[in-house]
Amino acid sequence: xxxxxxxxxxxxxxxxxxxxxxxxxxxxxxxxxxxxxxxxxxxxxxxxxxxxxxxxxxxxxxxxxxxxxxxxxxxxxxxxxxxxxxxxxxxxxxxxxxxxxxxxxxxxxxxxxxxxxxxxxxxxxxxxxxxxxxxxxxxxxxxxxxxxxxxxxxxxxxxxxxxxxxxxxxxxxxxxxxxxxxxxxxxxxxxxxxxxxxxxxxxxxxxxxxxxxxxxxxxxxxxxxxxxxxxxxxxxxxxxxxxxxxxxxxxxxxxxxxxxxxxxxxxxxxxxxxxxxxxxxxxxxxxxxxxxxxxxxxxxxxxxxxxxxxxxxxxxxxxxxxxxxxxxxxxxxxxxxxxxxxxxxxxxxxxxxxxxxxxxxxxxxxxxxxxxxxxxxxxxxxxxxxxxxxxx
Length: 392
Hints:
alpha+beta, flat
């Protein structure tokens, strides 16, 4: 008898210290792109107690008030005053800035111009590396169910908190959902849900648990919740000290939350704070876009795509497509690869142009995953490309 397959993914709220760092970095990126679309940005943020440290490389014509961006971002998350968090809040935070300009050695590889030792004059990749894209037809968003369910909990919790109806809610939070799959690879039931939320000191645990269970049941599919589904809510019994007060936060430390919850692979490069000349970001977005088209075209139930780059080179050094169709393949994998190469270009300049990656759109990607949000360019399906993949 086959053992049931169980897969678990987590999500974190916007007040989680790592996501505070991510949002500051992406907010700085958007501010640069808003004034200068050609900005080169690699901004990393460290947060701890009442400190924010900025580091990295930015080359831009934009005039940026980094202190204002940092404070406005922290305030928007919900750490507004000392009443929200005694140590970390927008009013008292101390900011250190160690940002410099981009290395000219890297710049000449990325720039669309010839340079000594560079192979050609096209815009090249901003670094070497591997990127993955993934899609699955188990949810309407063509995403794995565990990570989508975990994100839904976090989004609903944030909606309620920002609405102001629950005064004891605080910004830091985490969720985790375990899904059991049937033999056909479809979600069969939710085994358990973990939800931890920061709270003020004046609320009892019973109130928190009742409220959080209502949130969970509101957003998860009722048909997947059984009498045996377990809810683990604030399992330590207390979560008053949180955010950067309770733990340090660093840009790029939640890359599995940002992508597929572990069900699809990740090349290792972080997204937040990087402009699209960094293929860590643009290549991963492109791979997701292509994988989503393959599944939406009906060529596979699940698809994973890998692309690899060498710094300074325009063309990827390899493209790999792994198709898992559960016996439902309509065409061969070789045919899919041939059609993908005909429909899509993975050159950095083409990815920027096709997906509109020189616009200040990245702040909206930071929380609750960089994929599945219908307004993002790499989540929108192109009818012409679907037709090519379908062989029309």
